[in-house]
# Entry
Amino acid sequence: MSLIVQKFGGTSVANGDRINAVADRVEKFKKEGHQIIVVVSAMSGETNKLIGLAEEMMESPDPRELDAIVSTGEQVTAGLTALALINIGIPAKSYSGYQIKILTDQAHTKARILKIDEKAIRQDLDAGNVVVIAGFQGVDEIGNITTLGRGGSDTTAVAIAAAINADECQIYTDVDGIYTTDPRVVKEARRLKSITFEEMLEMASLGSKVLQTRSVEFAGKYKVKLRVLSSFDAYGEGTIITFEEDEKMEEPIISGIAFNRDEAEINVLGVPDTPGIAYQILGPIADANIDVDMIIQNVSKDGTTDFTFTINKRDLKTTLEIIDTKVKGIIHPREIISDEKIAKLSLVGVGMRSHAGIASKMFKTLSDEGINISTISTSEIKISIIVEEKMLDRAVKALHKIFELEKA
Amino acid sequence: MSLIVQKFGGTSVANGDRINAVADRVEKFKKEGHQIIVVVSAMSGETNKLIGLAEEMMESPDPRELDAIVSTGEQVTAGLTALALINIGIPAKSYSGYQIKILTDQAHTKARILKIDEKAIRQDLDAGNVVVIAGFQGVDEIGNITTLGRGGSDTTAVAIAAAINADECQIYTDVDGIYTTDPRVVKEARRLKSITFEEMLEMASLGSKVLQTRSVEFAGKYKVKLRVLSSFDAYGEGTIITFEEDEKMEEPIISGIAFNRDEAEINVLGVPDTPGIAYQILGPIADANIDVDMIIQNVSKDGTTDFTFTINKRDLKTTLEIIDTKVKGIIHPREIISDEKIAKLSLVGVGMRSHAGIASKMFKTLSDEGINISTISTSEIKISIIVEEKMLDRAVKALHKIFELEKA
# Structure
């Protein structure tokens, strides 16, 4: 008997039929003798509908109220899923994040989970119930409803799997696993049987939107065995996300190519190259709970330096306002430039560690295609570049081919 | 400075424009220096939509899950209303029943309020906030979400007004007050400036669906000053619901004619006329949380008696099943008859106490109209009858005229 957490996203619970399919799948595992915890997202479209209602009342809705409103989407799905289970004779109980309770910090609309009270869950499981939990939400210490940000239901699932020491956390989505890149861009893209946590982390954070980054971090930190599966395919194995040390076979050099069209780039040019400059620029932005992704600082010339970072496009306006009001007066940059028409592309693979020449092969390929690279940033297992948005598809295709990612 | 609870029903918060109108009304009172607590229902249609979703999953949805699902409707409206207030510069905070917390018993879908924690509300009011509370819902002692049954938001409003000792509880609806009878049936029907709690209780329980019965009981018990107003009319005075002793003027003999088409009648014929028979019939029905309205037992003849009661039509099937399985075997009735095509009509007025001949005038009028009365039941301030449903309108019109209810 295993204890399995199964998370179903918005398209997997989009309507009554889909929810019944979820119940059938849960039944299959239950009959095999497993204990099951189900985590659900809002029915697809519902969160946007609720945000739309909120924005009808107020241009930038008060975050506390927005959270109270949008969190209802998952609560409804959790109740409906429990009903679908009870209807086929499987005892089930639904819980909101408030009820569990999933304690978070107070950062409304992007809260972080601090603690999960697993007692009630365990009692219900031991009593033979399937426990259905509303994803994406929690409650702060004074009882305000919080949400975890887009894709937060993945984080809920993994956090619960960690808290209750589940044997496996299965993430059901509308794709049947993790691919070498987006098959809509490269038709030869191939499903990976396994991927390491580190690679997955890079892939997820870079826009392979199968899993929320934070959920992968959580899974890595708490050693939660994670599997990505399709909820539309009853027999698929999906992609298992492994700890590197478990891996026996030779690593492929490159696992995949991730990309992201949602980011905007901000260049803060000609700032004094003094200690603390990065903090002076990014501190006020972090205080506003805006996530900064890439951060690049070029070498100093004549005592000044250029500082570049990327953020989500939706945060661009706010970020520029913050720089205007809270940063400019202190660091006096020569110029601020921002660009929304960019895309980020990353080559990801743990094999990079032991293989030289990957970067130069990458840059040569792009050069041959006539694609200009504006910014480069690298880590141990990843090379990220920023290119013009319109050049992205061509870059992905060329790199997928040169690194032979279509071959197993 | 007064402390006012304002409750807005589904049609009053049906969309963004209506919610903004609610915010404008709250602003008016706030600017006059009052402290305001707002209680809201779900947007009209929303509760039915959620029930529909639940029934799609399960024919008779599990009540615990149903409550978790439908309670989200009010939570959304509460959040939207808070946003509308914040948007016009009025600090506001929304709360679900769970958050407040509104403690109820465990009778899912028709729970009763046991206790309200008013501390958080008072703190927020003292800090200058308008407190917006999701009506219709509460939480039981182990943290399950409960709902109070249809119209339960009225009860929430009155219970909060009682708990926090509010100066007035205003119930905003789509009608501008309590009428002598339904204006759709009698066009001469007149709005009452005031009505006593006792009369209102009879009117409400009999199908003048302006206020939920329980909310009026609550208001009477805790001496909450209650006013029914239209949310579509900025200047109306509505109808105030008074304690009889406050009333200075001469009472009218009859205040109004209430009626109800939602009931079904069950006749349990030829049961032994022994002590405990009423309990043996009604006990199992009450255990199933089914509300019984009229109860009539005819005089005994040859050791057996006939027992008649009415329930809501939607409970008819369940009630007949209960009688079949849990009652028949014990009391052995000669026959069980049920009738859905009935209507109940009641003449209500505290003046009845001191005026004779009301009943005979009523019966003569109906007789002149050729309307047959199947069942009669009376209280101090009310005469209720059951007639064929198709005769109801004619009966109401005739009685409204003979008692001159159109005249102030």
User: Anything to note?
Assistant: Residues 3-174 of chain B form a domain with the Carbamate kinase fold (CATH 3.40.1160.10).
